[in-house]
From TrEMBL:
SMART domains: S4
Region (Disordered): 82-127
Family per similarity comment: Belongs to the HSP15 family.
UniProt keyword list: DNA-binding, RNA-binding
Keyword DNA-binding in record: yes
Start and end residues of each RNA-binding S4 domain: 5-71
Name this protein carries in UniProt: RNA-binding S4 domain-containing protein
Organism, scientific name: Verticiella sediminum
GO annotation (BP), single: cellular response to heat
Length: 127
């Protein structure tokens, strides 16, 4: 373990992103903030820094506990940070909202109608 590490490497080692290039892409798009300021990939982070990460519709605020250059197993990566209580509460509330009001298109498991399906629909509409 070291004192400081680039934020893109830390996000990769902490398993927020599958590759460093995905971490760099998210940072360049402004989806990562360190101590309230927009970060650049080479920004150093250390223990005690506060990192805001947005992935899709998931926003997380974590406090860095340790840094590691290597990407270890998920339980070890989880020890590199602590999620803030406000972040946990917001994430759980968003999950509950998604559970109570699911996406309307989620029921469409079969996808678009086939050509045969469209012909049957057209026949049904004409009669």
């Amino acid at each position: 373990m070291e004192d400081k590490l680039r934020v893109d490497k830390w996000l990769w080692a902490a398993r927020f992103f599958k590759t460093r290039s995905l971490a760099v892409e998210a940072i360049n798009k402004g989806r990562v903030h360190v101590n309230g300021q927009q970060a650049k990939p080479a920004r150093d982070v250390g223990a005690g820094d506060l990192i805001d990460v947005r992935r899709g519709d998931l926003d997380m605020t974590v406090r860095v506990r340790a840094v590691s250059k290597v990407r270890g197993p998920a339980p070890v990566a989880r020890e590199l940070y602590d999620e803030t209580p406000e972040s946990v509460a917001a994430r759980e509330k968003a999950a509950e909202t998604r559970r109570l009001a699911p996406e309307p298109a989620a029921d469409l498991a079969e996808g678009r109608p086939t050509k045969r399906d469209r012909r049957l629909i057209d026949r049904w509409r004409q009669s």
